# Entry
Amino acid sequence: MSMSGNKEQLSADEQIECLRQQLMEAQKMTALGELVSTTTHEFNNVLMTIINYAKIGMRRKDDESRKKAFEKILAAGERAAKITNSVLGMARNRSQSFEPTELETLIEESLVLLEREFAKYRIRVERQFGKVPRVRANGNQIQQVLLNLFINARQAMPKGGRVLLRLEHDAEGDMVNIIVRDSGAGVPPEKLPRIFEPFFSTKSGPDATGKGGTGLGLASCREIIEAHRGRIRVASTLGKGTEFTIKLPVIPIATSSTPSVPAPTISTPPINGAPATPSAD
# Structure
């Protein structure tokens, strides 16, 4: 091939890479829009509860009815505070640096933002959180991964089910494991090896909430975790569900108080790149 042909090919490759980057950024903005929509609905529900019980308290004159109204208003106010704290937590996590991170806090903040959606689809969350050390992570990026996995789990159970969340310390490997397991339909064996490939999706398109179907979510998750020097694995059985395991390195005790370091820039893996190795149940 001529030198000019090589230059033209390189230019085409660069253009494709640029388009991939733009598509990944668009996917991140879409995810942000979905969160804003979810949070707005959550606040609207809280406000309606406060307004309705305030009206009841004003109409009723007996102490018992007023006490019940005040209790409902207090509970709604506490719920609003949880939502606010979760949103503020996401804002704090916008840093582009790796910092000592409490994974349990990140998980809980992510769950608050999807609590209404889980309740709507009758998804029960079971927590099995062991005592784990902190990891050095970019909180915003890890929260993106968690939200993606939680939404995938919900979508896998349209008629309801259970999501098991587990935190455990792998002392031998010096890693913290985050396990997200659903009781959904599972992924067909022939599709499982491709599940982390960019633009590959097991869904036919977005669901009723407008989420999913682009084939970018899990590819982005793998990229983020590998940038953290971690690993992400998947195991699935048809009719029983799917389990994702994220492994993140523990902060060495001697360096747990060292200053934060910049997080690496996340770039899209090549379409034909090797996917993360799946395991079988």
Remarks:
- DSSP finds five helices and eight strands in the chain.
- The chain has one domain: 1-281.
- Helices lie at 3-59, 63-92, 103-120, 139-155, 217-227.
- The chain has a mean pLDDT of 79.
